[in-house]
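Example record

The entry below shows one chain as it appears in the dataset: sequence first, then structure tokens.
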Amino acid sequence: MGFSKMFTWFFITWVCCNLHVSCSQQAESVKQRKPFFERLRRLEEQFRRFQELSLTRLQIISANFNISSSVDLRLQSLTEQSNNISATMSRFHTAAENDIATLKSWMKKLQKKTKKIDLKMSTLEQVLNERSKQLSKAKKEQSEMMSNLTTAVQGHRERISSLAAGRSKLQEETESLRDEVKRHAMIIARFEERVKSALQNDALSAKPRPVQAAAATEPRVHRAKPVKAHKQQHTQREGSICNVNSMMYFPNSSIENYASFDKEFSTGLFEITICSWLKTKANYLGTMLSYATEDNDNKLVLHGRNTSKQTTIHFVIGDPAFRELPVRSLLDGRWHHVCIIWSSFEGKYWYYVDRRLAATGSKFQKGYEIPAGGTLIIGQEQDNMGGGFDETESFVGNLAGFTIWNRALSPGEISGITTGKLLPGGQMLTFNDISILNGGVQHYNCTCLEHC
């Protein structure tokens, strides 16, 4: 760097000296020739200008030279940085290639999995389509069955209404026929009395006096008195309840005390009515009846339990659905008549105590069917078919006139049963169908409630 500067300055000095010598020679020649002075002066001025221009140029060159040295340093640092960047880029490129390779392998795996998922989805779509078709068919069949069932139910209701109307007419005709029979019986009895009195008068007129004395004792076995007594007995029964037929007595709280029927429900039940007279001196009302099947031990239950404060019992239709029925008024040791009615068509129930409606409700197992083929027990609650009893749930007291119908009785029919008229038709089960008595349970025949 220093040698080049010295060379440059030496070159410039040499040029200046040569120019000065040439200028001096030219001056001498100008002296010789006067017109050259002016030209020489011009040349000197040009030289000065050239010298100044050269100096400025040299200064610029030296400045540029310093700049070029700094540029070299910068270029060197930049080359080092570019080398570092290139090395980093190569590493990054290598890592990127590795990542790309792994991504390609993952992409292949994902493509395989997506293919499997697509196959599964297609199969699921086929299965769902088939199931939707089956469900639509089942819904159509169910709607058809429901429409048929509704039409059948409407037909049955119309038949039931017509049968009820015919039954009421038949009851009226029966009552009138009974009145006619009674009237004819009275006429026949009077006729018999007249015939007997006429025969007695003939005998008295035909026989001698001692025989008449003997005949005077005849009124001791006269049949008119028994007929009169029969009339008195009939008038006594006018206000009594004589549609009971039989009574069952459950002496104490024990799992040994229960009764079972010799026949079961032959068909499923969509309606049911349970009526009975009951009397208990206990401070609770136990289980009156329970109906169990193999798949459910509480298909039909009137369930009570010995608790400190019992105010209700559970009326169960297809466990776990139940309703609570009040029983506080029944725990006074007197006879009371209860009727429980349930209808699946409307999902309603009615609970009568002494022919008065004590409880009612709706939305209770609408459309449900009490199935056939179960076991019906009186006095105990079954935890399995025919067994699994609990002593605290047993019934204690008397049950009389127990009857089950496979239809819903009307309020008029309930009132007729409670007031002692004949039982309505369509009876499904009574105490006459009891097959087995267990423990200390006793079964008595008593036509009238006052004799039970």
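Notes for this example: Helices lie at 2-32, 35-206, 209-216, 224-237, 411-418. The CA atoms of residues 251 and 368 lie 36 Å apart.
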